[in-house]
Structure prediction request, 692 residues.
Amino acid sequence: MDTMAEQALEVIATFEVERRGYLGIDGKPLRCLPAFAGDRDLVVSLYRAMVLARAFDMKAVSLQRTGRLGTYATSLGQEAVAVGVASAMAEHDVLIPSYRDNAALLWRGVAIEDILLFWGGDERGNRGSGPVQDLPFCIPVGSQAPHAAGVGYALKYRKQNHVAVCLLGDGATSKGDVYEAMNFAGVAKLPVVFVVNNNQWAISVPVAQQTAAQTLAQKAIAAGFSGEQADGNDVIAVRAAVDEAIAAARAGEGPRLIEALTYRLGDHTTSDDASRYRPPQEVEQRWKAEPIARLRNYLVARMNWSKAEEEEIARACGEQVDAAIERYLATPPRRAETMFDHLYATMPPVYAWQRDEAEANDG
Amino acid sequence: MAEITLVDAVNLALARALADDPDVVVFGEDVGLNGGVFRATAGLQQRFGAERVFDTPLSEALIGGLCVGMAAQGLKPVGEIQFMGFVYPCIDQLVNHASRLRNRTQGRLTCPMVLRTPHGAGIRAPEHHSEATEAMLAHIPGLRVVIPSTPERAYGLLLAAIRDPDPVVFLEPTRIYRAAKAEVEDSGEALPLDVAFVVRDGRDVTLVSWGAMVRDTLEAADQLAAEGIEAEVIDLATLKPYDEKTVLESVARTGRCVVVHEAARTGGFGAEIAALIAERALLSLLAPVARVTGYDTIIPLPRLERQYMPSVERIATAARRTCNFAGSN
Prediction:
């Protein structure tokens, strides 16, 4: 018998996935906090952005229910992901969002009425009251990931010290083009940060049916760069993870992936009824971990936060949204012939009669 | 001036665009050191560097999406899909993003990209290497679809495509990559897009074609001329948006039209031209519009591809039948 055959095979690679969390469900620190968590103004601004996003979401749903907005996807319970991500970006960085990232757009300065205009069925909502270079909402799931690679390549090619930040959902990680994008970002060492908003549900399909992988973060490992998990209901954790990933990308260290673990407390969109496929007890349980109450507890315990301040922010955010809704509802409709305005840089004369017909039929 | 092939003309245009504009980048599978499987990018990486001319992983969806992301940043990406049969994973990017980025941002972001891919059968290639699905692409609003038929037009139209501020799919007729040589001056001058070229004048019948089929159509026109039938031949060149005027003016003069394409018949781009003529030039017609096309079958493997493709004889026969149509005059 050959004794050499009994030797264990050589291990040539091992991988680890870390999980990051700073605040417990009750808002109490679990470990040493990053320095920015001591900056009261910054923490309050994160809190305010989450409150604004939720106020916006709730009013948007009301608008939809009363026939004044189209199908709308709320980010209820996931506000810490988009806010944590956007707040870590510099203005000149490039956001490549999915359709559920309203809160990130709000942080980037996109006007509330523009977001409403888009979901209200009008392309003018994407004209760009925010940074001109940001891509618009991406609706075909995951198809924005290759754009992030293209943006990242352009930034690197021009030796700009900027970073592309791509937001994806858990469902998107099942898509081939997401892997193609991550794979190339790894090969070309592109300044791209991929953030997977793992809200556990892709409409009715839970993560366990998307993948047998233990984490979504580890999908980065196959692409040759590191992935980590962050508590996506802890805005401090999301912000810290993205801060580090952006700094690494800016330093030329290439891409990273952050899987932000959160939970979709609402329906997929206003056209969905999640009670058909998930138990209410699960949702109730998850409400206990939602991000706004958690940060409020932290503010109260560590930052001398007062009820008056909390109420003032709630009032101001409500007013801000209400004023924007008035502007949205007062936006004059587009004329039909404007659908030809941005088809090409210059409209081919061959389509002139179609444009004329659209104009004539629009009264 | 040296005579060069169509694929050399593609190379010449790419080199010119790279030399003229630092925003131009060229990429795809095997386009770097190897210079492309058809040699369309030969020498470009050596000349312009690996940042500007590079190999991607084997990822067609990525290639389409890279174009969109780069273009959104103001670069002028020129991506290559190795064969048209492999373009489908990247159609999502063309339909959902490239064609509509300008519109969905109301002009804030634009998509000045070119996606090059070889087009058509006739080189005895393996399965999936002989596709001619230009009608699918020409159906997409917001795209341009361009296909040259000579080295001069390959050079001039590719330069135009790269300089165009909107996305262009540039189809390269594989069968005539090396079939004919012509003198092409590296003038840096683009040809106009959205314009058809009348490549032969004639009074009796209008033959409309594009890509590799233009050569066969011209050969059929020579045969017909020997019989006393003078065919006018139009190289459509841009399929989206296409030059309706040139087609209609020609048919108004000849009263007869035959459309020739190697793509399958049903829903092929010939149907669009026949519909245009029915709508806008019916009373000029002396005979029904005829189509000479590939059959409504799967493009066969090479042993039958010659029988699938419209032959010079099929084109000439259709033109004769059109000219002898019983109801005419």
Remarks:
- Residues 6-20 of chain B form the longest helix (15 residues).
- The mean pLDDT of chain B is 97.
